[in-house]
Amino acid sequence: MLQKAAPARPDWVMRAQPIEGIERIEAWFQGKAYAMHRHDTYAIGRTLAGVQSFNYRRSRRDSLPGNTIVLHPDEAHDGQAGTGEGFRYRMIYVEPALFQDVLGGRTLPFLEGGVTTNPRIAAATETLLQRVGHTLEPLEQNDALAELAHALAAAAGMPRARGKGDYLAARRARDYLHANFTRVVTLEEVEIATGRDRWSLSHDFRTFYGTSPYRYFTMRRLDAVRRMLLSGISLASAAADAGFADQSHMTRHFLKTFGLTPGRWLQIVGNVPRD
């Protein structure tokens, strides 16, 4: 007796609310996904499962799980599953003007292949290619955009522009972030507090403090979490009081920074022998 074939999974697309010139989606398709089309934005994505195939610049490209897709603005492409299993991916669409603000008038970076395994580009897209349900803080998105623009420029062989920077603006930014880390800080606030535009300020901060504004901001939150945990405050309360969206948000940053979960860190600290 012949068995009936399993019904195909329905195609779906989830979208995040567009913010500051960036659209974020996650999607699943089985078979044909898109006919030939083009965007006036960069399309940068990550294949999560299956084989993501598309025609781009006169040849077929196949992206495997973990690969990063980088499609230049106004380049025609389509999309389909490379196997019968279908494919899942996340994608961001970035207005070229945002990258141009970072690069300061240099040529927009172009990667010929459309698919890359470049580790710096992969790392630079991690923040922006989180699940669409995750809300990015303004400073977080700004830092990620700046790093992605520089990663694309480096992969395209473009020399990085150097500037002296504005130390006083960087110090004002540091002081402002330090005083306000327990809440969401907007980019406009920091620009007003420092008298410097967001992209120049990002460069200044890295030049004089060796890290990005959002990374500094997050570290101050984590410092507060550790102090609160040692005083007996619960994980959930510490996360909220330090300005994190929730406990899992705090735990992800804690693990990424210290290599331990907050609970494991607290357990170890509590095991220090007494004289």
TrEMBL record:
Q: Which domain of life is it from?
A: Bacteria
Q: Which residues form the HTH araC/xylS-type domain?
A: 171-268
Q: Which UniProt keywords apply?
A: DNA-binding, Transcription, Transcription regulation
Question: Is Transcription there in the keyword field?
Answer: yes
Which Pfam families does the annotation name? AraC_binding (PF02311), HTH_18 (PF12833)
Which Gene3D superfamilies does the record match to this protein? Homeodomain-like
Give this protein's Gene Ontology molecular function annotations: DNA-binding transcription factor activity; sequence-specific DNA binding
- The protein here is known as AraC family transcriptional regulator
